[in-house]
Structure formats: C-alpha cells, structure tokens
Design goal:
The radius of gyration is 17 Å and the shape is flat. It has helices at 3-21, 30-37, 61-75, 82-93, 96-106, 130-136, 145-148, and strands at residues 52-53, 123-124. It contains seven helices and two strands; from the N terminus they run H-H-E-H-H-H-E-H-H. Strands 1-2 form a two-stranded parallel sheet.
C-alpha cells in the first residue's frame, strides 16, 4: 500500500488499541487481572484502571495526544509543525472534560505529592499525565520538549 495508507492505518490502529487498553491502563498484576477479568476479553471488561475511568471505547490521554498530532498534521498538510502540535495539545487537554477531572484530582490526596494516600480511587473521566501537566503549566515555550515528545 502507498505510504499515506500505511500512515492512516498506523494512526487508526494505535487509536483503536489505545481505546481497547484504556480500561486496564496501569494494571500490571497478572494474577489480579485474571481474578478480575476471568475469561472476558480485556477490551470488554469492567475498568480496573486505578487512576481514571473513561467510557468504553474512549481513548486514554495517550490516544488523545495521538489525535492532537494527527489533527496538526492534517492542518499543516502532513508537515511537522511543533507550534501547531502544541496548540492542538493545549486545545484538547484544556477541554472541559480534562479540566473537570484535573480539578477533582487536585483535591484527592492520592494525587498530591505532599499527602500520598492510597484510598482516593480513580477520577471519573479522562486523566492528564505529568508531562502534559508540565506542558500546560508553562514549559519554557509552546514548542518545548513536552510537545516535541509527541512525535518522537
């Protein structure tokens, strides 16, 4: 297949795989997973993610980052433009759903470096990881390493 078809297939495949894996994101104990899932296919299992819960078929923040890269590449006719990727990342990661769950997370001790409790449970909705938080909180420039890392 031509390069553009392979590129589209790679992006779609990555987005589908991310959505299928989101319910089990951050779950690394095989025995616990077997106990919780039984023989159910992981993509259709109840969420076990200890940090966030998204609706079945939804992407994790990593899948959303992929969409930001794809959106920017589409806007820039396939050219890598880190400033535009940074803008796309800022647009998505400051949408109401991410802002709401980030605000909830800030009130929970399990997410607070000074308090670190283990009983806070997951937030209901999408979750931004530390690199995105650092980027949104003012990296050196809009094209800092946080945005650049999206394409590497």
């Amino acid at each position: 297949p031509p390069a553009h078809q392979r590129a589209v297939a790679a992006i779609v495949g990555a987005a589908v795989a991310d959505a299928a894996a989101a319910p089990l994101h951050w779950c690394y104990d095989p025995a616990k997973l077997k106990e919780e899932l039984g023989d159910a296919p992981p993509a259709f299992a109840p969420p076990q993610n200890p940090f966030y819960r998204v609706s079945p078929g939804s992407n994790s923040c990593y899948g959303d980052q992929l969409r930001c890269v794809a959106r920017s590449l589409g806007r820039k006719d396939g050219k890598v433009d880190l400033a535009d990727q940074a803008a796309a990342l800022r647009e998505r990661m400051t949408d109401e759903d991410y802002e709401r769950t980030a605000a909830v997370r800030r009130t929970r001790a399990a997410y607070n470096e000074d308090q670190k409790a283990s009983d806070a449970g997951p937030v209901d909705g999408p979750w931004r990881h530390g690199t995105v938080e650092a980027f949104l909180n003012g990296g050196p420039t809009e094209t800092d390493a946080s945005a650049d890392a999206l394409v590497r």
